[in-house]
Design brief:
174 residues, mainly alpha, 69% helix, 0% strand
């Protein structure tokens, strides 16, 4: 904005001091440039005054503040995982492993006699045919990876808790 417009706006708004108001009113009467600009700015000011201001709804402030509160209250995705689902998956895999173990133990002939003797010995079952199938190998691999992941999460949580308590206590080690 140039100085003419600035002076005229101050004159129209009434923010200029009395000496400036007298000087600007003389310039408006005598100078054609000031007079034209003054009429333009008066028309613009009248348009601004005639405009109705859009008012936000009554609950606008409340809704904005509530959305800010909710945004801060959001938990990271890691904390929002339903623990029932995790426990259900763990239970499923535990049951599958237990079923395989029971099946392997049930297929053993515990009291089968050894060839040619009266004494009975325990026979080590041949479960290699069960363990060597690709499905079983992939299942065991998945279980091992899952167990390592759970161990990692447990150790990280334990380390995070220890760090958090040391930060709260001012860094003093117990």
């Amino acid at each position: 904005m140039n100085s003419i417009e600035e002076q005229l706006w101050n004159y129209i708004d009434g923010t200029s001091n009395p000496e400036e108001q007298k000087a600007i009113s003389l310039l408006i009467e005598q100078d054609e440039v000031y007079r034209k600009k003054y009429k333009e700015l008066l028309a613009l000011n009248a348009e601004f005054s005639a405009m109705e201001l859009d008012e936000p709804p009554m609950a606008f402030t409340y809704n904005v503040m509530e959305s800010i509160r909710n945004e801060h209250a959001m938990q990271p995705l890691k904390a929002r995982v339903d623990q029932r689902i995790v426990k259900g998956i763990g239970l499923f895999f535990g049951l599958i492993i237990s079923a395989i173990l029971i099946f392997a133990l049930a297929s053993v002939h515990w009291s089968a006699p050894v060839s040619g003797g009266n004494t009975t010995h325990f026979v080590i079952p041949n479960i290699t045919k069960f363990l060597s199938s690709p499905i079983m190998e992939s299942f065991m691999f998945f279980d091992i990876v899952l167990a390592l992941y759970i161990l990692d999460v447990y150790l990280r949580k334990k380390n995070l808790t220890k760090t958090y308590t040391s930060v709260q206590s001012g860094g003093q080690q117990k």
